[in-house]
Amino acid sequence: LTPRRKLLLVGPPGTGKTLTASVLAGELGVPLFIVRLDSLITKFMGETAAKLRQVFDAIKEVRGVYFFDEFDAIAKKRDDDRELGELKRLVTVLLQAIDQWPATSLLIAATNHGDLLDPAIWRRFDMEIAFSLPTENMIANYLAENWAGDQIIKKYSADDFKQMSFSNIDRKLRHIKRQNILSTITLRNLVGSSNVPITNSIGKDEKRRLVVNLHEQGLSQRAIAEKLGISRPTVKKALEQNEHG
Predict the structure, then answer these.
(1) Distances in Å between the alpha carbon of 240 and those of 52, 205, 219, 233?
(2) What is the DSSP letter of 127?
(3) Of 16, 24, 9, nearest in space to 133 by CA
(4) CA contacts within 13 A on the Cβ side of 205
(5) Radius of gyration in angstroms for the set of CA atoms belonging to the chain, rounded to a whole number
(6) How far apart are CA 135 and CA 132, in angstroms?
(7) Which H or E element spans position 11?
């Protein structure tokens, strides 16, 4: 018996498919290679299949975990009349390559649309793992393990993030924290008496807002430039951009 070496991960975006491939590579102590199949597709007849064969030939030479993202890009059902004959031939090439997959490496394919895959593709994999949106209990564990010490986030519970993927939850929490921090920063806090330039640590929009506020307070362009530690042309450009909306 040989170990399982071909895994198919199916589920919506942001549920951990790419992270799973990364973790497996780390546990096995081998490099992770990400193959983006959509970038192989060209408009020239036969060229895409040739590129695909080159990829699989290279895989035989280097041991590792090979992660095929957006697998449905070329592994679509061959009975779909909307697809060109070239793409259907690609599926055949792909099936042959998977059958000859080397025992020394791990193949991990991921798709957000399992229903689009050709039936023959499913049979080529040793294991299929379904990824779904996290349950309320999983979200609660995630918040406890990753955000427990954050006072800003403590008022939120798992109920506030129902039907959201982990990546979207993380993005929303970081947005909440960022907005909370920015809301406590006033112009006086930033440029009141300090001569230390603060513009290196803020974004362009915030920098432009500071320039406009100081200008509205009656400071000259030179004074604003000295206060913020930026050049006068930068101040002038910010004011012109504000004037033109």
Answers:
(1) 51, 14, 16, 10
(2) E
(3) 16
(4) 2
(5) 26
(6) 9
(7) none
67: nearest Cα among 80, 55, 53? 55
The pTM for the full model equals 0.64
- Averages of pLDDT over each 10 residues, the chain, 245 residues: 88 90 94 82 70 82 89 67 64 84 89 83 89 91 85 82 89 84 61 51 72 83 82 87 76
Rounded to a whole number of angstroms, the distance between the first and last alpha carbons of the chain is: 68
Q: How far apart are CA 185 and CA 69, in angstroms?
A: 41
Residues 6+ apart with CB under 8 A from 132: 11, 12, 15
Cβ contact 106:66 at 8 Å:
yes
The whole-angstrom separation of Cα 99 and Cα 124 is 7
> Tokens standing for 209?
């807002």
